[in-house]
Amino acid sequence: LTYNLASYTWPGWDEPKLSINAAHLAMGLSAAKANLRLAHELEKGDLPLSRAHWVIGAHYLAIADWPAAIQNFTAAVEHAQKADATADALLSQGYIALTEILGAPTNADAQQRLADLKSQLVVLEYGVFFVQQLDSALAVFKAAGAT
Fold this sequence. Notes:
Layout: H1 2-8, H2 22-41, H3 46-62, H4 66-82, H5 86-103, H6 108-121, H7 127-143
């Protein structure tokens, strides 16, 4: 439930009928942190830990806390790699690049890494969805003036 609450209160999905305000974002970040705590306490394993860190990073991305977002996306990559979840690892690496782009829009290295990661993702199961997710998030946060 905590993961779902965190996910539903993240504006990066670009859901046209949802209006997520600052209170929703705060609630979502709190739920994301509770989700991570529960994943540890319940010893859920590396893939749930990866996804828990991803959703925390996503919320930090939404509030333009670039260092905290990158820290959590990096932890998500590490746990996804331990779980042999290639698509999840690539997706989280994509979010690191996306965060770097939003923090420094002229970062050509991050733009190239994002393009390369999307090329690797697109051939995997659910890869097209993950690429669309990255594209949507980048568009949402650029439009919101996060850059």
